[in-house]
Amino acid sequence: MGETSLTAWIVAVAFVLLIVVPGSIVVLSLGPLWWLVVGLAVAAVLVYRHSRRTDDGSAESTGPARTNCVNCGARTDIDADACSYCGDTLGE
């Protein structure tokens, strides 16, 4: 097992022990009505996130269309004449 893989396992185990287990105990102690409330809240978040996806599965962009500058790689508006980072012209 590589160092990265081991680190990922440690983070996953720590997350389960510190967040999931105590969170589950709290939710279970609240009772059936709160289970329904928490379930509906989680479902609402999932539906909202799914509705913001495009057909190809990527997150919907909220800003203007952007491209990478061929000179420096900075993200720049697609309709800009020059890169806002390095100043290179963005001609085709």
Protein architecture, described:
This protein has 92 residues and is mainly α. The chain folds into two domains: 3-53; 64-92. The protein is built from two helices and two strands. It has a two-stranded antiparallel sheet with strand order 1-2. A hairpin with a 6-residue loop joins strand 1 and strand 2. The longest helix is centred in the first third of the chain and has 28 residues, at 3-30. It is elongated. The chain starts with a helix and ends in a 15-residue tail after the last strand. The relative contact order is 0.07. The model has no long low-confidence stretch (mean pLDDT 81).
Number of helices: 2
Can you give the mean pLDDT?
81
Mind describing the biggest β-sheet? 2 strands, antiparallel
Q: Which segments are poorly predicted (pLDDT under 50) over 5 or more consecutive residues? A: none
Anisotropy-based shape = elongated
What is the end-to-end distance?
47 Å
Strand order in space, largest sheet? 1-2
Rg over alpha carbons? 23 Å
Number of E-type strands: 2
What is the oligomeric state here? single chain
User: Helical proportion?
Assistant: 40-55%
Q: What's the gist of this structure?
A:
The chain crosses the membrane at residues 7-26, 32-48. The protein is mainly alpha-helical.
